[in-house]
Amino acid sequence: MAKATTAKTPAKVSTKASAKAKAPAKTAANTARKEAAKEAANAKARPSASRAAAQPAGQDAQIDHQSVGTRLRHARKSRDLTLMQLSEQSGIAVSTISKAERGDIALTYDKFAALAHALNVDFDTIFGRTKRKAGDGTMQATLTRSGTQPIYDTPNYEYGMIANDLTGKRMVPMRAHIRARKLDDFPDYIRHSGEEFVFLLNGQLELRFENGTAFRLDQGDSLYFDSAVGHVYLSVGKEDAEVLVCCVDTELHRPPQTL
């Protein structure tokens, strides 16, 4: 069950050639495996266009940061906005927007939401797979098969986008892996308008809020909260926590017309 608590605010190894030559074959093999695992982890934390292109069929496709940045820049320029003007309207620093447009950094959900509001575009159009728009009447069902979710990587979270071929949705559903382990992993708490629901699929999770409250979740637990209150997700188990998250923007902050 989820438990509420009070959150606290937040060799180089040198090996001689002679010793290496005498090392057993088993030790050398273990070292090689560790180096391969380390390289794989580094590649996962810093996704690239080449990795996205090489993604095997049937696996979730990696979203290229540069492609996302290109769409952000196109949306800004098509509205005749300068970096400074977009910064003023979104509350996001000019340097952050500029780096995001070049694909140098990965943006978190709150920054994407702020930019989408300022640009008056639907959240999912930024990720480039939108095909259909939700109507005012009965909405056509959209199916996201396992292994087909576009993946957007950030240092602390890996977002798996769900139903992002449908624009105009009232909620943004995502599957996420939580890499963050401590509050210091974040420059600040994450805040965005609306409400948020999280269901813990695997692992152990702690949600910390800027008001001092924290909730510990075990597998099968869930939490619903006001996402305008600063919050962070932290994995507290041996493995990275896996969650289902649904973010719902409020009508007050939702763009009147979305692309």
Overview of this structure, please?
- With 259 residues, the chain is of the alpha+beta class.
- It has a domain at 65-140 and 148-248: Jelly Rolls (Sandwich).
- It has seven helices and twelve strands.
- The protein has helices at 17-22, 25-45, 49-53, 65-78, 83-90, 94-102, 109-119, and strands spanning 3-6, 132-133, 151-153, 157-161, 166-167, 171-178, 195-202, 205-209, 213-217, 222-226, 231-235, 241-248.
- The strands form three sheets. A six-stranded antiparallel β-sheet has the order 3-4-6-12-7-10, with no helix packed on it. A four-stranded antiparallel β-sheet has the order 1-9-8-11, with no helix packed on it. It has a two-stranded parallel ribbon with strand order 2-5.
- A hairpin with a 3-residue loop joins strand 8 and strand 9 (213-217).
- Helix 4 crosses helix 6.
- The protein starts with a strand and ends in an 11-residue tail after the last strand.
- Residues 8-29, 36-58 and 252-259 have low confidence and may be disordered.
Write the layout of secondary structure elements.
Layout: E1 3-6, H1 17-22, H2 25-45, H3 49-53, H4 65-78, H5 83-90, H6 94-102, H7 109-119, E2 132-133, E3 151-153, E4 157-161, E5 166-167, E6 171-178, E7 195-202, E8 205-209, E9 213-217, E10 222-226, E11 231-235, E12 241-248
Parallel strand pairs: 2-5
Antiparallel strand pairs: 1-9, 3-4, 4-6, 6-12, 7-10, 7-12, 8-9, 8-11
Helix pairs in contact: 4-6
